[in-house]
Design brief:
The protein is mainly α. The chain is built from 25 helices and 6 strands. The longest helix is centred in the first third of the chain and has 40 residues.
Length: 637
């Protein structure tokens, strides 16, 4: 018998789909608290490990920065009001510009060499590497990544690299989550969840916003979607990690700010306009970052040298600015947040300082520091230096938001305008729009402010930036939705099939061969041979009810055995019937096909009368039709 239909699914794909149909088919079963408890226990383990490693990383980074940047170079880093300072500073060393000139290059060069030698995926911020591991690599991260990332980030940031410590701790925490999953030999899906939980725990440990960190970890993986399954484990891991970190360093918010920020509806248009300005700045930052990355890739030097070249460029760029700007404001040796994370500059935008000018000069100073921070960050992160992009993004947004608030206060002569409120909203707007994490950025800003006074302005500004920056993304590894993620490909197949009924795709009135239980085997073989498309042949009783099926494999065996077919009838050839109703979903039909090793299944209506057949090719066509329409709709949007 000739087979004119498309080939069936490969055996491996059939087995994977069969396993998934059993898992998701049982989704309506009662909640198994043992499974939930096991997931949360693993998340707690990941959170504790991430909290300990994050605490060690923070302490080592502070020690290296104190020795190299503050003592040797005499550089005075501006700190946020709630930033920890380990140990009292008793001696202020003289500022040595020549040391600051070469220090960032030395740390970045050594860090680049270690990264290239041991773990190339630790170059850059680290967030893209975690996102890629989730989508492309089944949640697998090499065991050495957490420790290598910590070492190279300490070298880069401790010597003045312009970047944040949160990006490295996110990658370190994600690596720990993956390591726990590999050690416990969990499934790919559970390992991915632990990877996300570890990412949240790494952020929560050092940024001190546990809820925002959990939301960021589940939201940053997609441009227009989030990982709902990982939310509760991420929250749990964040709480544990945050608790471990605060046990060592105490509980405090990162920034000091006004006691409250009263809400004035008249100021909402100003916040919307600020969001547009910040979106332009975010787009410019991304353009500069990509330009530096392209230029770095063209350099005719080994890859391990490139972060060192970026560090040298940073020293040449930043040192003259530190020499020129600091003394003008009575801050000799202070870069006003140019090097390192720069949270002190954001703090300046929020509450100001005694030495800070007022009015237009304040707006000019904040905008200038923001532009300088953009260049410094791109020279560090864009050349492969192991430093996070999260911290600088908040600082840049806060500086330009604060500058906008200062300018609005001068232009409108409205004493109710608080530049600090605009700085906080600008922080969340810049990163939330550029990383496509509006909800996480909103909650983080509220946690930083210690209240929800800015909730409404944040909602408006985040919405404006999300639309304005929809075509730009800080993370190249992000995918649009779960449907585009390889991590959810099989799940998406079943999700689509659950929403389509058999009757919607069934081709009715197609002629097919059927037999009674007494049909001679010879006649069965002859009629089956005349039908090129049919693999399953129904056997009915005298009332037309389906009592069994004859498979083409059996007919081939009978055709090769003349003695056997002479005496046999259809009843002797049939096996128990397999069918689905036309009101069932395509998922039910796929389960029937996969479980019984068929290529097609008989479709009956409520009374049991046969109304047609459904095969794999038609299910595949229906899936492609639905997903193709969804993809076209997404692209049109």
């Amino acid at each position: 018998m000739q087979d004119a239909r498309p080939a069936s699914l490969p055996r491996r794909a059939r087995l994977r789909l069969l396993a998934l149909t059993k898992v998701f088919g049982a989704a309506s079963a009662p909640l198994e608290f043992q499974i939930l408890g096991r997931v949360l226990l693993r998340a707690a383990l990941v959170g504790a490990a991430a909290g300990l490693l994050g605490s060690l990383f923070f302490a080592c980074l502070e020690a290296v920065q104190r020795i190299l940047l503050e003592d040797w170079a005499g550089y005075l880093p501006m700190r946020a009001g709630g930033e920890q300072v380990l140990g009292a500073v008793t001696v202020h060393h003289p500022f040595r510009p020549w040391v600051l000139l070469v220090l960032p290059a030395s740390g970045a060069l050594l860090g680049g060499a270690i990264s290239t030698w041991l773990a190339p995926e630790t170059r850059g911020g680290g967030s893209d590497a975690i996102i890629e591991a989730f989508h492309q690599n089944r949640g697998l991260v090499r065991k050495r990544v957490a420790f290598v990332k910590g070492i190279v980030s300490i070298l880069t940031l401790g010597t003045g690299g312009s970047g944040g410590r949160e990006g490295p701790t996110m990658q370190m925490g994600g690596a720990i989550g993956s390591l726990v999953g590999q050690s416990l030999k969990v499934s790919d899906r559970e390992r991915r969840i632990l990877l996300v939980a570890g990412t949240a725990a790494g952020m929560a440990a050092v940024f001190r916003t546990p809820l925002g960190a959990a939301l960021l970890a589940v939201e940053v993986l997609h441009r227009d979607d989030f990982e709902a399954d990982a939310l509760v484990p991420s929250v749990f891991a964040s709480v544990v990690s945050y608790s471990v970190f605060t046990a060592f360093f105490g509980e405090s918010r990162l920034f000091t700010h006004a006691a409250s920020y009263p809400f004035f509806p008249q100021h909402l248009p100003l916040y919307a306009l600020m969001a547009i300005v910040v979106s332009f700045v975010a787009s410019a930052f991304l353009s500069v970052l990509r330009a530096v990355q392209r230029a770095t890739a063209r350099l005719p030097v080994p890859q391990w040298c490139r972060p060192g070249i970026g560090g040298l460029a940073l020293g040449l760029f930043a040192t003259p600015i530190v020499v020129a700007i600091g003394p003008r404001f009575g801050q000799a040796g202070s870069g006003l947040g140019i090097l390192g994370g720069g949270y002190g500059a954001a703090q300046l935008a929020i509450v100001g300082a005694d030495w800070m000018p007022a009015g237009w000069r304040a707006a000019e100073l904040l905008a200038l520091l923001g532009a300088i921070k953009i260049v410094a960050t791109c020279l560090t992160v864009g050349t492969g230096g192991s430093a996070g992009d999260f911290g600088p993004s908040l600082v840049i947004g806060g500086l330009f938001g604060g500058a906008f608030g200062q300018a609005a206060q001068v232009l409108l002569h409205d004493p109710r305008i608080s530049p600090g409120a605009f700085a906080l909203v600008g922080m969340g707007t810049f990163y939330g729009g550029l990383a496509h994490v509006p909800i996480a950025a909103l909650v983080m800003t509220c946690e930083l402010a210690g209240s929800y006074d800015l909730l409404v302005p944040l909602m408006l500004a985040e919405g404006v930036a999300y639309v304005a920056l929809r075509g730009r993304s800080l993370y190249t590894a992000q995918v649009a939705t779960k449907r585009e993620s390889p991590a959810h490909r099989d799940e998406m197949i079943l999700d689509v099939l659950t929403g389509v009924r058999v009757a919607d795709v069934l081709i009715r009135n197609r002629p097919y061969a059927t037999f009674t239980t007494r049909t001679p085997a010879q006649e069965v073989i002859e009629k089956a041979a005349e039908n090129a498309w049919q693999d399953v042949f129904p056997v009915v009783d005298d009332g037309g009810a389906l009592v069994g099926i004859v498979l083409s494999d059996v007919l081939r065996s009978m055709a090769a055995n003349p003695d056997a077919k002479a005496l046999a009838i259809a009843h002797d050839l049939m096996v128990p019937p397999v069918s689905v109703e036309d009101t069932d979903t395509l998922q039910v039909a796929l389960v029937a096909i996969l479980e019984h090793g068929l290529r097609e299944v008989i479709v009956v209506e409520k009374g049991g009368r046969i109304v047609g057949f459904l095969d794999e090719a038609e299910i595949t066509k229906a899936y492609q039709s639905v997903t193709g329409a969804s993809r076209r709709l997404t692209q049109a949007e």
